């Protein structure tokens, strides 16, 4: 790839930041980064540094202050040994709201299909039997957050303000596990044959949401 860039008359990739927001880019990501070309051997390190700079580069000092204050309340060693995953920590810090399942079902959009309504009903029946914490984990699995916006279900929107309602889609193999597209608030359920089969698959989601599957 680097040779292709050179053949096209472009500069090869080096260990420098990329433009984003008000940041013009071009700053070395490591000492002497403007002289280090990206190769097959160091490309993973380059991607890690670029992502780190993109996510926290402009607010690194401010974020460090927040973290230092947080660690004074909850020491880092204790946090690491607690076994809490990201979603559990978020629920612990932010609290959990009791999500009304009837309201959730009322605001849900269903995909078109012969069995969409049936399987969606099974899902909400299963959800009604779950704890407040489990409902929050399922919501996080589907939307990326265990809490609804201040305006409720109608406030699920994209950055431009366009509505993105919670949606259930029935697709895939019967043996597949549920999956989700958090950018679109979409839960993808397999075409299972019974409520019990769906419950078993949703139990896996509840177990791993916030960990390997989120």
Report what the structure shows:
This protein is α/β, with parallel strands linked by helices. The chain has helices spanning 2-7, 43-56, 60-73, 76-82, 86-94, 101-107, 116-128, 132-143, 195-208; strands spanning 109-110, 167-170, 179-181, 186-189. Helices cover 45% and strands 6% of the residues. A hairpin with a 4-residue loop joins strand 3 (179-181) and strand 4. The longest helix has 14 residues, at 43-56.
Task: Determine the N-to-C terminus distance.
Answer: 32 Å
Which percent band covers the strand fraction? 5-15%
The chain-level structural class is alpha/beta
Q: Tell me, what's the shape?
A: globular
CA-atom Rg in angstroms: 22 Å
Number of strands: 4
| Uncertain parts | none
Taking the sheet with the most strands, its summary is: 4 strands, mixed
Strand order of the largest sheet: 1-2-4-3
List SSEs in N-to-C order.
HHHHHHEHHEEEH
Number of helices: 9
Query: Helical content, roughly?
Result: 40-55%
Overall pLDDT: 85
How is the topology of this model organized?
Blueprint: H1 2-7, H2 43-56, H3 60-73, H4 76-82, H5 86-94, H6 101-107, E1 109-110, H7 116-128, H8 132-143, E2 167-170, E3 179-181, E4 186-189, H9 195-208
Parallel strand pairs: 1-2, 2-4
Antiparallel strand pairs: 3-4
Helix pairs in contact: 6-7, 7-9
Describe what is shown at a glance:
This protein has 214 residues and is an alpha/beta fold.
Which properties best describe this structure?
alpha/beta, 9 helices, 214 residues, 4 strands, four-stranded mixed β-sheet, single chain
């Amino acid at each position: 790839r680097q040779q292709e860039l050179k053949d096209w008359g472009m500069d090869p990739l080096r260990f420098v930041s990329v433009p984003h927001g008000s940041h013009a880019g071009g700053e070395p990501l490591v000492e002497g980064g403007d002289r280090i070309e990206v190769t097959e051997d160091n490309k993973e390190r380059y991607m890690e540094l670029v992502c780190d700079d993109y996510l926290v580069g402009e607010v690194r000092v401010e974020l460090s202050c927040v973290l230092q204050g947080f660690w004074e309340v909850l020491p880092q060693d204790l946090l690491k040994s607690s076994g809490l995953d990201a979603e559990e920590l978020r629920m612990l810090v932010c609290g959990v709201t009791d999500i009304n399942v009837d309201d959730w079902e009322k605001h849900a959009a269903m995909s078109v299909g012969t069995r969409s309504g049936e399987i969606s009903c099974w899902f909400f029946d299963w959800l009604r039997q779950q704890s407040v914490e489990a409902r929050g984990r399922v919501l996080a699995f589907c939307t990326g957050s265990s809490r609804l916006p201040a305006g409720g279900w109608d406030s699920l929107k994209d950055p431009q303000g366009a509505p993105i309602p919670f949606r259930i889609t029935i697709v895939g193999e019967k043996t597949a596990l549920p999956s989700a597209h958090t950018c679109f608030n979409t839960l993808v359920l397999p075409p299972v044959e019974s409520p019990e089969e769906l419950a078993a698959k949703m139990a896996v989601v509840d177990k791993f949401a916030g960990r390997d599957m989120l």
